[in-house]
Design goal:
With 155 residues, this protein is α+β, with helices and mostly antiparallel strands. It contains six helices and five strands, in the order E-H-H-E-E-H-E-H-H-E-H. A three-stranded antiparallel sheet has the order 1-2-3, covered by helices on one side.
Length: 155
């Protein structure tokens, strides 16, 4: 059975520092090689924190990487050009994203989201806009959700 280490790294900027080095060192893998591969596979997510799972076979010390996708909130904030979301999400707006950007994020996250259809996944991303303090095309995301769902409310 493989040992595994789960880490959250900034895309393309993993280092063999305290967190990753300390976790991988006891497993007997070449930490520098692991860091190089993580950086190579995450460079497309520069500026975003990306979940990475490192699986190590203890018999031969070979490793494999499973690179996840950044969280929806991180993708939305990058799209809005913001470092962080609102601390008072329901009263403070920190930025705006377009509905096209919301659609792209929903499509990129794909199976990571719970909706059965792309429309349900888009609604889930719009819901994250509420928590992050972002508007969608200048509209309050709660109102936009009501418009999109016909004010059905929760199912």
């Amino acid at each position: 059975m493989a040992d595994s280490v789960s880490v959250l790294v900034e895309g393309g900027k993993a280092s063999a520092g305290a967190g990753l080095g300390a976790a991988l060192g006891p497993l007997g893998v070449n930490v520098v090689q692991v860091v190089q591969q993580i950086n190579e596979q995450t460079k497309g997510f520069a500026g975003l924190r990306v979940p990475v799972l490192v699986k190590v076979n203890p018999a031969n010390r070979q490793f494999t990487l499973e690179v996840g996708r950044p969280p929806v909130a991180a993708l939305l904030l990058k799209e809005a050009g913001k470092e962080k979301g609102s601390g008072k999400a329901k009263t403070e707006v920190v930025g705006n994203v377009t509905l096209d950007a919301v659609r792209r994020i929903a499509e990129a996250k794909g199976a990571d989201l719970f909706g059965r259809s792309i429309e349900e996944k888009i609604n889930q991303v719009i819901g994250t806009c509420v928590s992050a303090g972002l508007t969608v095309d200048g509209k309050d995301p709660r109102l936009l959700l009501k418009e999109r769902t016909g004010a059905r409310g929760p199912r």
